[in-house]
Amino acid sequence: MNRSRPQYPGFDVAKLLAALLVALRHAVQWQFRPGSAEYEIVYCWLSNLAVPVFFAISGFLLFSKAEKPRLLPFRTLAKYVARLFLLYLIWSAVYFPFSWYAYSINPLQTLPDFLRQYVRNFFLTSNVIQLWYLPGLIVACVLVFALVKCYIPSGVVLLASFGVYAFGSWMGYASMQGSMPGWALDFVDSYFPVFETTRNGFFYGFFFVALGAALSRVRLRALKWPALAGFAASVAGMYFEVKAYGENDMVLCAAPAVACLFLFLRNIEGRPRAVFPEMRALSGWIYFLHAVPLYVFTMLEKEGSLVFIARWPAVWIVLALGLMLSAFFWAVSHAKPLGWLNRLI
């Protein structure tokens, strides 16, 4: 993350909070099962705000490099996509030993089967719980770029992408599939066996990147406080949606929630301060590194070397270790010989 970029204080604070929410989401997922109140509140409800924030801010920062989204040079997009793919390769390599360990303890999986599954997941879903965001961001940015380059207004792209997001949310609720027409059910039946989830760049990231792109040159200052009220109402809507329909990879009300939050954050102004780029960097380390202790503890559990008596202490321990590891790399990246570490986020 380049510390020389223009400062957006609201975005930097939101990214740090979103990274913490992602870390908490995965720690709760590790200890609590579907149906529990903790799983419902953290995993199904609140944490579904986190990654959309990253998508929207990334779309904003990319497309704000041009006077209008459609004027963004192809070379700029290509460099951005190449950097994201390189990050995906690097972090996939960092976490590969954990994938290999899972294969080594599975007596029913052959090496060719493991390799086929690993390659398949690498391109379709990711082999690591948080890394799906990187290929998702690539797909979403390319989609938005291609559409605006065809002279489709950003507002129209945003509306179309919301339709895709809404359809993806509809697909994910098993209780609602009975209301689908035949063609939609046929699509669902053919889609999930291949792609497994709608948490990807097309269904999930497309809308939020389009949101960032559409607002890259628009402030809408008069909507700052109404947007905050809309955010609160939409977050409440997310809760009732989850209560009514259960777990879903995509929560429909998260779309207006993040849109309203983004409008509010877009209009937060402040003096440039050194703390904001540091928050931006720390959020990157937390996002990418928080799963390391989680995978280690999961391995120890499978070997019978680690047993937690209570679930919440386990959550806080793995969360604290993930934050400590992230803070360590954030701190050492300030040393001049190790400045290259910043290229990993």
Secondary structure: elements and pairs:
Elements: H1 9-31, H2 37-45, H3 50-63, H4 74-104, H5 111-124, H6 133-149, H7 154-172, H8 182-195, H9 201-214, H10 224-245, H11 254-266, H12 275-289, H13 291-302, H14 311-332
Helix pairs in contact: 1-2, 1-3, 1-11, 1-12, 1-14, 2-10, 3-9, 3-11, 4-6, 4-13, 6-9, 7-9, 9-11, 10-11, 12-14, 13-14
Commentary on this structure:
- The chain is mostly helical and 345 residues long.
- Helices cover 69% and strands 0% of the residues.
- It contains 14 helices and no strands.
- Helix 3 crosses helix 9, helix 6 crosses helix 9 and helix 7 packs antiparallel against helix 9.
- The longest helix has 31 residues.
- The protein is globular, with a radius of gyration of 20 Å.
- 39% of the residues are buried.
In brief:
This protein has 345 residues and is mainly alpha-helical. It is built from 14 helices and no strands.
The structural class is mainly alpha
Give the termini separation: 6 Å
Radius of gyration: 20 Å
Largest sheet: none
Tally the beta strands: 0
Proportion of residues in β-strands: under 5%
What characteristic shape results from the CA principal axes? globular
What series of H and E elements makes up the topology? HHHHHHHHHHHHHH
Which consecutive residue ranges, at least 5 long each, have pLDDT under 50? none
| Overall pLDDT level | 94
H/I helix tally: 14
**Share of helical residues:** 55-70%
